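Query form — protein Heterokaryon incompatibility domain-containing protein

QUESTION: What is the three-dimensional structure of this chain?
INPUT:
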Amino acid sequence: MDVDSNASVNPVYGDKIDGNSIRLLKFSQSQDGRLTGRLKKFALAHAPHFYSASYTWGAKAYSGTVIELKTGQLPVLQGLLPFLRMVSRHEDFHDEDWWWIDSLSINLADGQEREQQVQIMADIYKKARRAMVWLGEEVEDGSDCTGAIDFLHYLQNLQPLFSGKNAEYVRNNLRSSGMSVQWASVSNLLSRPWWTRVWTLQEMILPREVKFFCGNTSISRGKFKAAMYSIFLCSVGDRDMEVELIPRQAFDTAFNRRRVHQWHVHPKARGIALVAVLAYLGNHSATDSRDRVYSVLGIITARDRKLIGKPEYTTTVQHQYSKLVRSFYDEYQNLDILCFSHLFSRYSGPSDPGYENAVPSWAPDWRVYTEFASPVPLMASQSASEQHIGNFRPLHGQKWDAMYDAPGQRLRDKADVRFHDNLKELWCNGVILDKIESVGALGGCDPRCRSFVCARDEPLHGLVQGDISMHKRTLESADLVSILTKIARSLVLGRQDKYLRFVAPQYYTSDFLVLCNACLESEILPEDPGETAISTFATWFRGNRHLRLGTHTLEELVENIISSSNPPLFDSLPVPSIHPGSRSDRLPMYPPNTSADANSDYADNFLSRFLDTIRKKSRRLMVTNGGLVGMAPCRARPGDAVVALFACSIPLVLRKAGARDGWQVVGEAYVDGYMNGEAGQLIKRGTSNIHRFRLV
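ANSWER: The structure tokens for Heterokaryon incompatibility domain-containing protein are given below.
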């Protein structure tokens, strides 16, 4: 429900409603196009059967058309009028049907009524016999969706064929040029604004039944979900999204809603966590940014509804987003929510909104637009965090056995978190692991970063090396392999799979070495899993070959390991899962390592994990002054501190700010060797001290 209240009091709303009642509407259209109706108050618990409408408000302009009531007139929004006219003449509906339509049933000029109705919005949609989603006319505003619904009906029947002997024939037929018109129509349908409005998510998820209308044609929610899965099966083939039949952004938005609905209705699901769904809504829009939180009250867990409290529209967006962090900590005794300022920050978008409009750096600014909605956008979204953060991995992937816990339980008990009364400052104990000396390059790898800060780099996302202060001793053979292993683990964030469920296998180090060697020999890299991954790795290696790791560059490190003999260092590594390439005369040939099958799906391999880290998560390889290796946010710079806050599972990159020893949150970091409580040993040995951080 978006908001565009009328300044004057409309007499049709004379019968006041509260948090236990609603207004329902009957309407009809005369032959000359006039709309007439009846608006009546009901107790929600005893309301008659009614339909609810889900639609896009558009420019929030009124059409000039009104619904004539005995008590006055109801102005109709431009975006709603075509839907009302369709309903009036459609054979599935009747003049005696009751409807709940937000812009007509709620007096939006009454702030108290608005807040009360928002609070029971979930109950309204659950109570409705069916929600009718209006996606617009088949042809409007340069968007031609002719035949889209009919094609979706066709697709929803094909799912069994993708697992049969004719699967390849079905794929090839659907991918043929003769189907281009149908795919264009569906693409236009999934690009309609309805899919990216925050309120429409729960309007699709909560009702018992949902039907999507485009013009006079319709499809049920169940059949739509089946059609989306058929599109997925047709697109993937043997690789992740091998063929883009629909623009990826449009596909992901609709497909992710299918996943959210699965999580909502599955009997074994634990519910949807607030932070996970707020991150998912990063590419959605809202007229009032406070509705980013209130619009999902109906689909999140009871604990998260409790921490939000009652909807209210009197305090600022900035205050509410900061308050959300405090409420989150009060409920979970955890600050993992801070990690989301990595994506939702004043500095993460293409332009600076300015200081006056900014939230504190430690509070995620959920207003920031993110182009892609990833099921697992951050390390804090790890599958182990499902109780307080959550993610949208497939339901069949609920098993996990790996967890990031940088401070460990002993240090968590010493966090001593405090918030200033004005909610502009936060204090928490932690330890500085080290300061960043160098950050690697991402140039040419097409990362998803859209930060105006990074856009000022020359070159864009280029290699940045500080003064080389790392120890200068000559590295022994064991050191070379150890550093290579740290780099390989860092590039996959220490995990085997994109849902961060399982520890990365040791052979990922061997795979990394094979790929680096192929780059040095200018070979054609191994074919698995596709040209995009191969070319991206080669580009990344070229950009980072001169990154210094102690006395060696990355290139020298690889050369020394490959060329070593007596005994060959490569033989000390696990068997790789990929072949080094037929022309390589420096690496032995082994049968591929197939031990990946136990806990992973077909897409889990070093290259796919590398792509997820470098491209989708926009992480840069980092080296610290003391020789730690890891991955940093793309906005990190030499001199930034890498910190383990005692209330946060993931290390953070912090930057000094102001004269009063304040710190800004830059984003989350992977620090190899310090992701599972090892920070406690630094304090125990006396090599590091507990630091009181004031985040601003």
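ADDITIONAL NOTE: The longest helix spans residues 248-265.
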